[in-house]
Amino acid sequence: MKTVRDDRGNRYLLLKRSESASLVRDPETGDECYVRNDRLEFVDRSGLETAAATVDEPVRTLLGNVHDEETLGLLIELADRGPLGIRTLLDSYDLCESDLHGRLTVLTAAGLLEETELEHGVATERGYRVTDDCRRALETIRPARDDADQDEDASTNPADADDCAATGE
């Protein structure tokens, strides 16, 4: 499958080409139509890249740079808990320093994390936080929970809330 562009700049996936017209599909909507060949030009982009472009850029970045559950979990924890310092990350999660450093470097280079300085009294510590793009991508792939759902869960079984508070989880 090849990518073509019409004379208005719209990109399509070429499905079938005849002598005078081509059957094309809009990758965004899935709609198919015939367009005269003299209105089409080939684009130097694979059909698979064009199809992937229908997914928001932040989600594509997340999918392209997160290759295991631990890395995804690291991003989720940073999104949920706010910026965290290096020492907190090392103490809280079962990652060695070199593994953590490697993941943080890749995620920062991809634009999913950004480095920050965290203040602890008079001292500062290097830390990391998710970028706005990362937050948007995570919101896209995670189910939304609103405050009403959380309040309902807490009121449904208050014993669970006490156990959680007692164990510090």
Automatic annotation (TrEMBL):
Region (Disordered): 141-169
Name of the protein in its database record: Uncharacterized protein
